[in-house]
Design a protein that fits this description.
There is one protein chain. The chain is mainly beta. It has seven helices and 31 strands. It has one domain (32-50, 96-114, 124-449): 1,4-Beta-D-Glucan Cellobiohydrolase I, Chain A (Distorted Sandwich). Strands 2, 3, 9, 10, 15, 27, 28, 29 and 31 form a nine-stranded mixed beta sheet that branches. The longest helix is centred in the last third of the chain and has 11 residues, at 351-361. The two termini are 31 Å apart. The relative contact order is 0.19.
């Protein structure tokens, strides 16, 4: 899912680049994870996180002069995409001081608003690193992925998102030689929304047609988008949560333009499925399952487990089902079951579930048209990068996650009610002003054989 930053800095605004600057040392915060065997034995991996390039300072390769200020590229340094990539450098990050990103033990805390010495930062997006220059790649067919999360400090309008995307392991340096920064500096982002706010795509600046956002003073959109398969393991705040596979008709990261991007009225003509097939317990009819004081009590930490079941029960099988369960206070909590008339009682995502849900909710089934779970399984088998983020929504105020959406629908319209947040909530200006100290904590990340990453021992 796309998150945005607002940096008001005398040095820089959040932006991505292709050269490497030397004015701030880049040191990745350590975030060890565990790999688990079928016997339940887990071993630690020395992983870390890097900040997405869209948040970083972009400046001249020969000075500290900005290449991007406010929501515009500097015309002198960036008259076109290739020249901009040659003239401008991406620098290191002060993770806690500027971006509100802190790591301790196996926990990563992402603060929503951070007032640093030179900037005001909004949200963040980070990626898990296997080494100093390569992302950690997850191949999860016939496996499960689990993590602990604390969303107690995430109100309406915010999204603590943990998800997989089919980015290049090296951030694109191998395919695009003009990209000198690579994974170390968080380059190469893509998702199924084919976002146009990525400042550098395929080793070139997204300068052509760049237009500043009317609601975000440091964001804009260019001619090109960056597309790839996306598996939303977790999109949530303290009110609502969803997990959602999204697929594309292409594999790996691809730069799009025109119809292929699926913008606006062409939403269902593009190469990616922007809607996905979501399982949100509230939307599926159980309004007492997830939230403060409910079955999954969001006032305290809990474990989220996602299992990728194949048709053959082997790593080479076709993805047939995505299961979800929770663990809290040492108790395993099975996912809620669909209570929507016309949708078979189910607690997991399958192709049949998606077809029934789309039909009953009168939604376009682009997920099925672009290959469904088999396509999602292709990406999961090839390997995907883990993104950990917190963000607010300048497009739809996060109402698609935690309120009634579209807002013109009645709350009793099947599929419209997604949570208890008011339809007037989630405006970024309000959230940033009234909930700046919001945060999310991700910890205890594990992956391995199904049934190996969690226990009931507390």
């Amino acid at each position: 899912m796309i998150s945005k930053t607002t940096l008001f800095s005398i040095f820089a605004a959040g932006v991505s680049a292709q050269q490497v600057g030397t004015l701030t040392t880049e040191t990745h915060p350590a975030l060890p994870i565990q790999s688990c065997s079928a016997a339940g034995t887990c071993s630690s991996l020395s992983t870390s996180v890097t900040l997405d390039a869209n948040w970083r300072w972009l400046h001249s390769t020969s000075s500290s002069t900005n290449c991007y200020t406010g929501n515009a590229f500097d015309a002198t340094y960036c008259p076109d995409g290739a020249t901009c990539a040659s003239n401008c450098a991406l620098d290191g990050a002060d993770y806690p001081g500027t971006y509100g990103v802190t790591a301790a033990g196996n926990a990563l805390t992402l603060k929503f608003v951070t007032n640093g010495p030179y900037s005001k930062n909004i949200g963040s997006r980070t990626y898990l690193m296997a080494s100093d220059s390569k992302y950690q790649m997850f191949k999860l067919l016939n496996k499960e992925f689990s993590f602990d999360v604390d969303v107690s400090n995430l109100p309406c309008g915010l999204n603590g998102a943990l998800y997989l995307i089919e980015m290049d392991e090296d951030g694109g340096t191998g395919r695009f030689p003009t990209n000198k920064a690579g994974a170390k500096y968080g380059t190469g982002y893509c998702d199924t929304q084919c976002p146009h706010d990525i400042k550098f795509i395929n080793g070139e600046a997204n300068v052509d047609g760049w237009t500043g956002s009317p609601t975000d003073v440091n964001s804009g959109t260019g001619k090109y988008g960056s597309c790839c398969h996306e598996m939303d393991l977790w999109e949530a705040n303290s009110i609502s949560a969803a997990y959602t596979p999204h697929v594309c008709s292409v594999d790996g990261q691809v730069r799009c333009e025109g119809t292929d991007c699926g913008d606006g009225d062409l939403r269902y003509s593009g190469i990616c499925d922007k809607d996905g097939c979501d399982f949100n317990s509230y939307r599926m009819g159980n309004k007492t399952f997830y939230g403060p004081g409910l079955t999954v009590d969001t006032k305290k930490k809990f474990t989220v487990v996602t299992q990728f079941v194949t048709s053959t029960g082997t790593d080479s099988g076709t993805l047939s089902e995505i299961r979800r369960l929770y663990v809290q206070d040492g108790v395993v909590i099975q996912n809620s079951v669909s209570e929507i008339p016309g949708v078979t009682e189910s607690s997991s995502i399958s192709d049949d579930f998606c077809t029934e849900q789309k039909t009953v909710f009168n939604d376009n089934n682009q997920f099925s048209k672009l290959g469904g779970l088999a396509a999602m399984g292709g990406a999961i088998g090839r390997g995907m990068v883990l993104a950990l983020s917190v963000w607010d929504d300048h497009s739809a105020n996060m109402l698609w996650l935690d309120s009634t959406y579209p807002t013109t629908a009645s709350s009793d319209t099947l599929g419209a009610a997604r949570g208890t947040c008011a339809t007037t909530s989630g405006d970024p200006a309000d959230v940033e002003a009234n909930s700046p100290d919001s945060s999310v904590i991700y910890s205890n990340i594990k992956f391995g054989a199904i049934g190996s990453t969690y226990s009931t021992t507390g």
